[in-house]
Here is the input.
Amino acid sequence: MKNPPARFRIETPTKNGSSEMTTPGNTQSTDKTAGDLSITDKRTNKNYDLSIKDGAIRAADLRQIKTADRDDVGLLSYDPAFMNTASCRSSITYIDGDKGILRYRGYPIEQLAEKASFLEVAWLLRHGELPNQKEYDGFVHDITYHTYVHENIRNFLQGFRYDAHPMSMLQSSVAALSSFYPEARNIFDPEQRNIAVIRLLAKTPTIAAFSYRHSKGLPVVYPDNSLSYVENFLSMINRMTEPRYEANPTFVRALEILFILHADHEQNCSTSSVRMVGSSHVDPFSAMSAGVAALFGPLHGGANEQVLRMIEEIGTIQNVPAFIETVKSGSGKLMGFGHRVYKSYDPRAKIVKQLADSVFKITGVDRGLEIALELERIALQDDYFVSRKLYPNVDFYTGLIYRSMGFPTEFFTVLFAIARMAGWLSQWEEMLLDKEQKIARPRQIFTGHGERQFKQTINVGIK
Ligand code: SDX
Here is the structure.
């Protein structure tokens, strides 16, 4: 047997050579928003000065604002769905929703999509700087030599029905990986964090491909270490009897760009889920499975699948105006439109739309494109959507590309998850190393009964 490859390099995230990982806020940004907020509590006529830092007040500073009632524990901030709450300080991804700006560690997404590789971006997201050649080659080597999963995971996947949703299979398998690597629970050991990051980035495509082959009733295709990250993924999806799979280079580059576009997006629902679950100090495999679960939702990563189903339901371009009217009447959403942060065109959607042209040159134009373009044309000029600042988001066109590359509709969100694993892992590690963070435990405004006495009125079998 050839010398087994070096297991992995210990590349703990560093910035400027220090052992400390890039902790949030350590770039020298001048805070133009700093100042004080004076509050008068009209209930007591007391005044309070709260400090404003980085455009925010500390919610904990509200606790000092109390009435004369001795039981008053002080003010809470009430923010269902965290519409206006910063949960952390992060230096990974910057979004400007009004200007349609997205940057990973300061690099515009347009430049990364055009010139970078996905693994280069995965390194950047985690370490804060682009890798040098030695770092990059070592990272690619480590990822390549960790793409296999334990045979028990392959057998585990065989236990699912043929028509099981691949996101269910991915969610369960990522969680199951935690039972194969109990040492990953040592989350404050940089070596354990490093190998867990490598294993998750390396094995997620393998699990995804195995679940695809299971749904087709095909034998799995094992990783081919002579191929790049994306080529290997496409080989595990498509290879049949040929000894070595030759992926279409246009598809390889298109998928690489789509993975880059989906890699991170600051504190979205799935990333916040990873941070919250990770804050209990559970192992990273369990924390990432929470991210997969949240991404599965149709309002989040599941939207790319729903866009295709919506387009299929519309059926023809003639039906578009009537469909738009049903959306405006409130009986449904225009899937792939709208965003909590972007109140202008999602910069990723622009890139995806351009990318579609290069893929369709190979595959022919996807039958749904005409309907998608008409939906966009009408929505962008209709006051219902314009007044609500609803524009195409990253999910609106991606499904058309994935379908034209041969992926089944229910597999689209799995492709999103493969890419977002890089962001989840980077955000998880940033949370762990952030000295301000602790176990996440929000409060509530209680709206239930006051105390009342229990009276047993039914037979519940208690003697
Ligand atoms: C992703 O957060 C991220 O960064 C996520 C993501 C990432 O990279 O991680 O960018 C990936 O999840 C993209 C979003 C994919 N989801 C969809 O495309 C599903 C359709 N979109 C909507 O469900 C919605 O736009 C959300 C969930 C994306 C955002 O919802 P918000 O910010 O909570 O906005 P809202 O639901 O309060 O909507 C405000 C108004 C409402 O109308 P009114 O009650 O004021 O009359 O806009 C309407 C909504 O009904 N509206 C829509 C709509 N989205 C919002 N109406 C029709 N179609 C839509 N798509």
